[in-house]
Amino acid sequence: MQSHLWTVLGMVAGTCTTACFVPQVWKLWREGDTAAISRRMYIVLMAAFALWMVHGVMIASAPIIIFNALNLLLSGAVLALKLRGTPAAPAA
């Protein structure tokens, strides 16, 4: 496979991975209920994304760098909402 096809594959995979976080962040932002979110899991997940970013820099892989940076930001938003301890929104 030619190298640009590997990059395209990485971009598609990264898009799928990052797209998984967007609904989670959106739901937490709107509803505020973080009771079911594991703080420890998101701390470990953020460490993993940071390490993958370092790996991406070391091998000069744009998809690894870009999407792990985005995932780090999104998982950081989830963790921030969890730490903020926003109470559940009142029922309408």
Number of domains: 1
Q: The biggest beta sheet, please?
A: none
- Strand percent estimate: under 5%
Count helical runs: 3
Indicate the CATH class.
Mainly Alpha
Straight-line distance between termini: 55 Å
- Low-confidence segments, given as residue ranges, are none
Would you summarize the structure shown here?
With 92 residues, the protein is mostly helical.
Topology:
Blueprint: H1 3-31, H2 39-59, H3 62-84
Helix pairs in contact: 1-3, 2-3
What are the main properties of this structure?
Monooxygenase; about 90 residues; mainly alpha; 3 helices
Structural notes for this entry:
- The chain is mainly α and 92 residues long.
- It is built from 3 helices and no strands.
- It has helices at residues 3-31, 39-59, 62-84.
- Helix 1 (3-31) packs parallel to helix 3 (62-84) and helix 2 (39-59) packs antiparallel against helix 3.
- The model has no long low-confidence stretch (mean pLDDT 88).
